[in-house]
Design a protein that fits this description.
Radius of gyration: 20 Å
Largest sheet: none
Structural class: mainly alpha
Distance between the termini: 41 Å
Mean pLDDT: 90
Number of strands: 0
Oligomer: single chain
Number of helices: 4
Length: 142
């Protein structure tokens, strides 16, 4: 579970990095910068909480029998999706304070971060020199 915990932390960090990029890319071009930022923060906070919920659900499911684990996974997936839809719907109701499209961008940060993390891991391994190749520089091997 240490690998899963590290991946969780990296994913949450990337969610907030992407949120920062979205905020700095658009905050100067909108009529209401505060609601723009608040929408992105609300979406990114929801995405981060969904990742923590997913992590704890997976931890529970690893201890369950297969059939119960599958059912639990389905139910939790539906609940997470309903929560995200609820947050997005609420953003339309509170559109004076949060911009719904930045809430959506924050929610999509979870998806984009999950795509970025494996590439980041690969880059990190290559930087360390653990890419599966022989990294010793021996002149006799040439």
């Amino acid at each position: 579970m240490n690998t899963a915990r590290t991946t969780l932390i990296e994913t949450i960090v990337w969610i907030w990095i992407l949120a920062g990029i979205v905020i700095f890319a658009g905050v100067f071009f909108v009529a209401s910068p505060l609601s723009y930022v608040m929408g992105e923060v609300a979406g990114s906070l929801t995405a981060s909480l969904m990742m923590i919920w997913l992590y704890s659900s997976l931890d529970i499911e690893l201890d369950l029998p297969e059939k119960k684990a599958v059912n639990h996974s389905r139910i939790m997936g539906v609940l997470r999706s309903a929560t995200e839809i609820g947050v997005l719907a609420a953003s339309f109701y509170f559109s004076r304070w949060v911009m719904p499209y930045t809430v959506l961008a924050g929610l999509f940060g979870r998806k984009f971060a999950a795509i970025i993390v494996p590439f980041y891991e690969e880059w990190k391994e290559k930087k360390k020199g653990i890419s599966g190749e022989n990294v010793t520089d021996n002149k006799a091997d040439r």
